[in-house]
Structure formats: structure tokens, C-alpha cells
Amino acid sequence: MTRENDRERLVEVLSRSERIHRESVLEAIGAVPRHEFVPDSHTQQAYHDRPLPIGHGQTISAPHMVAIMTDRLALSPEDRVLEIGTGCGYHAAVVAEIVDTTVYSVEFQPELAESAQRQLDRLGYDVTVTAGDGHDGWPEHAPYDAAYLTCATPELPDPIVEQIATGGRIVAPVGTGRQQLLIAEKESDGSLTRRTDGYVQFVPMRG
Ligand code: SAH
């Protein structure tokens, strides 16, 4: 079952919300089989716009949040992207629909890293997952044009900021307690221009 109609309806909901500005993001959401990433117990709800459990006390973000974060990354096909917090791999698959190069993703929980890599490979997504602490970023593949975190941090870890190219973007839930979605861009002097885009709720970054 491909669930194309369910995805079309979800894209309509997101499109009507007027919070997603890039057609490429809506197309990506319309293409990625979210039901392949959620546990069997939740495949019926796979195309509802809400977070779902993925085991190990973690959740897959609601589709609108994946779409907003991806939209704000302002991706071009040639961009190199770093993800911190692979989870089940759904968000990485959405990004992989937009960019032409490998997406690099770091996941703290080894079992999740392994199962996400397996599923992404099976579905043919060009994503390379490593198990590790995302506080260090992934220096081997830097510099990145864009990076995003799917777990909340009090402040952006310095290594991640260092691994971003000039003009690159970082999107991350930032804050303890009340979190805000931070959208940052790296200037030529290495500093970050920052703005926030609403309150969000993500699992805290571990490690
Ligand atoms: N984007 C994911 C959502 C993942 S939820 C998806 O589409 O499913 C957040 C993830 O961040 C969890 O899998 C959690 O294990 C991971 N995480 C938490 N702390 C981390 C850290 N320090 N480094 C890397 N990943 C981390």
C-alpha cells in the first residue's frame, strides 16, 4: 500500500497553513512514505499531523514541524546537510528528497541509528547515519551548507557552528523549559545572525 492519497491530503493541510513557503518542501513531504518510518502499531496515524512514538522514549516530529524546519533551511539541490538526531530517519528522507548529495546524520542511540540506516537504505535514500554525540557535529564531512537539530539544546554547540560554511544556515530548538525554534545564518566574520520562529517542543539533547 503506497498511501499516496493520505500524503496528498497531508500536503493540502500543510499548504493551507501557509507556513511552508517552498514548493520543494511540500513535494518532499508528498513523496516520503512516513508510514514506513513509524512503528507498526502506529501506521494508521502515519499521515496525521502529529508526533508519534518511535521507541527508546523518542518521537518522530509532527509533519508540519519537519516541513517548517526544512523550509527554513532554504535548501538548494547542491547543499551538504548535517542532521543531529536521526530518530527513525523520516526527516533525513525529506531532506534527501531535496538535495542531490549525501545527507549526513548523527544519532545518539545506537539502535535507532542502525534501524534508521537500514530503513533509509531499503527505501533508497542517500543518507549516511553514524551513532555518536551530536554535540561534536560530524567534522569529517564538513563544511556543511545547512545543519539542523531535532533535539533541544540550551545553546548551539560550538563544533556545529564551526562546521557550517559562510552563508550556511542552522535550524534548532533552543532553550531549557520553553524552547524556541532558532534560525541562524553564518556571516563571513564567523558570527551568527539569529531569529526565532515560534515556540516548539522537542526531546532534550542527550550526552
Ligand atoms: N528527526 C527525527 C526525530 C528524532 S527525535 C525523525 O524524523 O524521526 C530526536 C532524536 O535526537 C532522538 O532520536 C534522540 O535519540 C536524538 N538525540 C538526542 N540527543 C542527541 C545527541 N546528543 N546527538 C545525536 N542525537 C541525539
UniProtKB/TrEMBL annotation:
GO biological process: methylation; protein repair
Annotated InterPro entries: PCMT, SAM-dependent_MTases_sf
Keyword presence, S-adenosyl-L-methionine: yes
Known catalytic reactions: [protein]-L-isoaspartate + S-adenosyl-L-methionine = [protein]-L-isoaspartate alpha-methyl ester + S-adenosyl-L-homocysteine
Any one GO cellular component localisation term in the record: cytoplasm
Keywords, alphabetical: Cytoplasm, Methyltransferase, S-adenosyl-L-methionine, Transferase
Annotated PANTHER family: PROTEIN-L-ISOASPARTATE O-METHYLTRANSFERASE, PROTEIN-L-ISOASPARTATE(D-ASPARTATE) O-METHYLTRANSFERASE
Pfam family, any one: PCMT
Enzyme class: transferase
GO molecular function list: protein-L-isoaspartate (D-aspartate) O-methyltransferase activity
Gene3D superfamilies according to UniProt: Vaccinia Virus protein VP39
Originating species: Halocatena salina
Active site: S61
Compartments, record wording: Cytoplasm
SUPFAM superfamilies given in the database record: S-adenosyl-L-methionine-dependent methyltransferases
Name of this chain's protein: Protein-L-isoaspartate O-methyltransferase
Similarity comment text for this entry: Belongs to the methyltransferase superfamily. L-isoaspartyl/D-aspartyl protein methyltransferase family.
Highest taxon listed in the record's lineage: Archaea
